[in-house]
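User: I'm writing a short report section on ligand binding and want a predicted complex to refer to. Could you take this sequence and zinc ion and write out the structure as tokens? A short remark afterwards would be nice.
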Amino acid sequence: MSLKIKQQERQKYEFYNGQITLEYDPVDHVYLRDGAEVPSVTTVLKIIDKSAPLMNWAVKLATDKILQSVVFPITNPEEFTALVLKAKGLHRERLEDAGDIGKLAHDYIEKYIIQQMSPSADTPPEIEGDKVWNCFRAALEWMRLHNVHWVSTERKIYSRTYDFAGTLDGIAFVDSCNDRECCPTEFKSRRSLIDWKSSNALRIDYLFQTAAYQYAIEEESGDTIEDRWVIRLGKSDGKFEAWHLESGYEEDFRAFLNCLDLTRSVKSVTLRMTEYRDRIKSKTKKRGQNGKNKSEESN
Ligand SMILES: [Zn+2]
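Assistant: Sure. The structure tokens for the complex follow:
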């Protein structure tokens, strides 16, 4: 792809009253400021290893598939090989499916919120798929119970101080519900940051993620965010599970900054060692050529 076409496809986002412009490169999935890559919140959080439970799950998925499908004695080795290979790739298939559902649910909820904010906007199209519908139903139930009034959705954020970017799911004014486990005190109209999750469980890195969004949005807008909400939308049961965060922001944001620091250190050392390896490689190559030339001379 030519550089020109690539640049045309880039979306521009302005921050801080137009003082800062970021470009989003949809091909490489990166944010750029004056041509330099800006770390995104979700990329930074990949530095936390979440693979252990996934690994167990992937192995179980593969072994279950093989044990359920294999017929003894194995008379057709080719068929058996195909089964093993299918089982090997199953976890990737499932993760892709889950990712698709999450994306469709996010897109649909976004369209719904846009319509809530401006009734003249297009009515969202009909939902395809039970799991997406369940996610939407769960989000709607949370909104109903908390008398939610939306301020923005899918907003881009950028922190000028720490140089990171991202997209938050939503900002809204939220009331307490009647469940004191969910909302320990009664309150009205708190400016809150909302993040939807369609994963099977809530993880602490979601706290770091939302703290990063909160820092950036407060830095840019000057508005104070009172609460953060990480809301898991049940794909199978259509119910929500919410982490209502009234405190802990400082600790969560510190954790995000640690991840950001570590990401930068890893990137910098990797680059240094790549250059080191390249230097050694080219020296070895040169020495090899010299040796070859010498042996040719002596011939
Ligand atoms: Zn509540």
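A remark for your report: The chain has two domains: 6-38, 50-261. Strands lie at 11-15, 20-25, 30-33, 36-38, 149-159, 164-174, 190-197, 227-233, 240-245.
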